[in-house]
Amino acid sequence: MRAARYYGRKDIRIDDLPEPEVGPGMVGIDVAWCGICGTDLHEYLEGPIFCPTPDTPHPISGETSPVTLGHEFSGVVYAVGDGVDDVEVGQHVVVEPYIIGEGVDTGPDSRDYHLSENMNFIGLAGGGGGLGEKISVKRRWVHPISNEIPLDEAALIEPLSVGYHAVERSGAKAGDVALVGGAGPIGLLTAAVLKALGVTVVVSELSTLRREKAVEAGVADYALDPRETDVAEEVRKLTNGKGADVAFECTSVQVVLDTLMDALRPTGVLVVVSIWGKRADFDMHKLVMKEIDLRGTIAYVNSHPATIALVESGKIDLKPFITGKIGLEGLVEEGFDTLINRTETAVKILVSPSGEGL
């Protein structure tokens, strides 16, 4: 089978690999679609970050680079290993792509397995990846979905789960006003969860395409251009001078963080969703004087079932966010290069490892 593998910074190659073995407790999946994530772009430009090096194996997977990329993917079950009796061949599935150490409680009541030591992700630290034609995954991380959900849209359930967990962390509820800083894929999908819960959503975004996408998709009530509008002042106008109840930082850009701090009401909640590769210059005095509650969020924890339910119920439509589909051979030029250098033209680009559906 073919797979896109990460060898190091700016070095991704399409390799021919043996098909994965579907051992006991495993599920074999024909990958239908895999999204290109911002994390993949960071690995390509600045890595290795989550990916192992050629000399340093990941402590759980034991793998060194090269590793197959891709952690936002959907597919169809083609085989099940011994001991798996609740998933069937032909079933549509998505994957919660964790690499978690043995002995960590990943049961339905756990709220912290995603914070366990050496936690990492399938498609970054090993275990195969969604940018390969096939993958074998532990049953625990495989989530069946309705066959009525198109598989291209299903590939967005993983990043939507990131938004779901971020909203859960914020405590946002129906009737609140939320400000989302940045309308990239995670910002848009966080906004989608907020709208599904009955929250009024304001988005701040430089890209015209992404502002338009937020409004057209129905995930934002207001989409502001920070070059033309004082976002904090506009939010206060929209809230009778009060300010936003919750805010989500989805850019890792300093000026966005500052804007969110200004736009929040006293006792508001600021959730940092983006991965920062550098230290932020934070106004601690404003945090204290407004009694802002600052919260971090990473990935998801037992979030997939509720996220899938939102999609299956029709409360969230993922189709509007798909702006491109490519094959493996176009991964760097049509995929990575577009998302790095031409963000004005794309939101979420999906890859078909097999070429089917293109």
UniProtKB/TrEMBL annotation:
SMART domains: PKS_ER (SM00829). Residues 8-351 form the Enoyl reductase (ER) domain. Gene3D superfamilies: Medium-chain alcohol dehydrogenases, catalytic domain, NAD(P)-binding Rossmann-like Domain. It comes from the Bacteria. Keywords: Metal-binding, Oxidoreductase, Zinc. Signal peptide: none annotated. PANTHER family: GALACTITOL 1-PHOSPHATE 5-DEHYDROGENASE, SORBITOL DEHYDROGENASE. This is Sorbitol dehydrogenase. The gene is gutB.
